[in-house]
Amino acid sequence: MRRHNGRHHSTTPRITRLLGSLLLVAAAGAFAVGAAPPVQDTAIPLGRVVPAPASAEPGGAPYRITHDTGIRVDDSREARQVAGYLADILRPSTGYRLPVTTHGGTGGIRLRLAEGPYGTEGYRLDSGHQGVTITAARPAGLFHGVQTLRQLLPAAVEKKSVQPGPWPVAGGTVRDTPRYPYRGAMLDVSRHFFTVAQVKRYIDQLAMYKINELHLHLSDDQGWRIAIDSWPRLATYGGSTQVGGGTGGHYTKADYREIVRYAASRYLEVVPEIDMPGHTDAALASYAELNCDGVAPPLYTGTDVGFSSLCVPKQVTYDFVDDVIRELAALTPGRYLHIGGDEAHSTSHADYVAFMDRVQPVVAKYGKTVIGWHQLTGATPAKGALAQYWGLDDTSAEEKAQVAKAARNGTGLILSPADRIYLDMKYTEDTPLGQDWAGLVEVRRSYDWDPGDYLAGAPASAVRGVEAPLWTETITDSADIEYMAFPRLPGVAELGWSPAATHGWDAYKARLAAQGPRWEALGIKYYKSPQVPWPTS
Ligand code: NGO
Does ligand 1 come within 6 angstroms of the Cβ of 436? Predict the structure, then answer.
């Protein structure tokens, strides 16, 4: 809609001109509601994508998806599934049939598996008059390329009802591979329980931004959320409440497998966490023998931390840990098992070290790689273990140095600085949800840092990636998750995916702003940060 129209440059008094413009605006608005909407046919610029692609070379004619468009795909099961996923997004809003075919032909949308400089997750997208081709070496690359294609189409493509179009894709070539292999999001399902459907909804949102790890914080003082056959009361009793005293809940093994399957269909790996030896009240309340004094404490529904500990000297503790890790590892196709290790304030240092020395080999015995919160570096991290750093600017130099030293000795790092990318931190003091112990974290602050040189003394090569944790002491449903994750989560995704050379707040905030209408089309109620130039609709 053009606000400045040459026709109004006359001698008419200012107020009349203003009224005239208002009428024009109103008329155009009425027109938009009517039959033939004035939709602009300019394609979205090729690089206007979050996370920023490694390179985007615009050029040539755009492709236009029409009722004739088909999706051609190599005859591989996974590639066909990616094509089906794309068709499921495009069909409701375009109203086109978009048949998926595995035989030849030319033009249209093509998903192609081929060797090339793509790695396991990269892709190349070529768009021109004839069609759009996404090429990748692995299906994950095709999937990420599909996310890019989605963002190159008008926001209305995300709607679930037929929209007028048109559906142009700018001409040119995008070449894209991720900076880091680990790009995660954590959901705390312990403080408040989230259903399988709620977790799936979040998975779909994470996938849009090429996040590839879903860390589930499955146990804490307030709730044990995964069925363990050999210790059934963990879930049935330990999972029976949550912060504030609600009824909580837990995942059956079938539920958990369904989350894993759904995540895999969106190319996310599930990283399950059992937090130990602290943050264990739900387990201690479920089985008296796990307590040093043999007395089960009550279930806990508050939000304090650091008051519980497994009993390090007792053998039964390790029988318990072995059973839990064995059953969880058997359910989990992913490479990692997160053993927590944060805030063990009720465990002596010697006990903490002894506990980690016994527990880490159990994770290895069941074929998984250890991840622990960075306090694990105060013990002896197992070979190949990853430490998840959740400190802040004013974490003590000593603590930072300990993590950096472990990194120099081979421990990989996942960066989750609390005063940057904890999604449970309030944006401003007026944010109705969240906490502020790590400070207020507006959108710019969460985006504007570099994982490569963040932790002094840690080699850049130790950094495996970033993860945005969402702790849920104050978060109870999908709307809450979305309000805290959007718009910060896409910034974390960009820090994990995009080359450092593409980093820059001014360009980023314009690309981020373009996501707003997409979230609106998807029914995501995000925080409209004043730092971001959202388009006026
Ligand atoms: C801390 C604590 C969690 C809290 C969270 C709240 C870590 C690793 N341990 O982060 O138990 O839920 O802060 O922001």
Answer: no
Nearest CA owner, ligand 1 atom 6: 471
End-to-end Cα spacing for the chain: 10
Active site residue 399: no
In tens, the pLDDT along 423-462 reads: 999 999 999 999 999 999 999 999 999 999 999 999 999 9
Query: How many whole angstroms separate alpha carbon 334 and alpha carbon 506?
Result: 37
pLDDT at 36: 41
Ligand 1, atom 4, lies closest to the CA of 471
User: Which of 472, 248, 414, 218 shows the shortest CA–CA distance to 327?
Assistant: 218
* Token pair 């399902």 in the structure block, residue: 189
Q: Of all helices (H) and strands (E), which one includes residue 356? A: helix 349-365
For residue 418, the CA-to-ligand 1 centroid distance in Å is 9
What is the whole-number distance in angstroms between the Cα of residue 279 and the centre of ligand 1?
A: 10
pLDDT digits (tens, 9 = 90+) for 465-483: 999 999 999 999 999 999 9
Reported as half-sphere exposure (CB side, CA atoms, 13 A), residue 348 has a value of 6
486-534: per-residue pLDDT in tens?
Answer: 999 999 999 999 999 999 999 999 999 999 999 999 999 999 999 999 9
Same-fold call for 55-176 versus 182-500: no
Annotated catalytic residue, options 343, 398, 473, 482? 343
CATH class of 182-500: alpha beta
374 CA distance to ligand 1 middle (Å): 12
What are the C-alpha distances in Å from 171 to residues 42, 131, 153, 418, 480? 11, 9, 12, 40, 38
Spatial neighbors of 69 by CB under 8 A, at least 6 apart, are 96, 98, 108, 109, 131
* Interval 112-169: pLDDT, tens: 999 999 999 999 999 999 999 999 999 999 999 999 999 999 999 999 999 999 999 9
Cα of 103 to ligand 1 centre, how many Å? 52
- The answer to whether the beta carbons of residues 185 and 467 sit under 8 Å apart is yes
The residue ranges of every structural domain in the chain are 55-176, 182-500
User: What would be the CATH architecture of the domain defined by 55-176?
Assistant: 2-Layer Sandwich (3.30)
Pocket test for ligand 1, best of 222, 305, 415, 437 (most atoms within 8 A of CB): 305
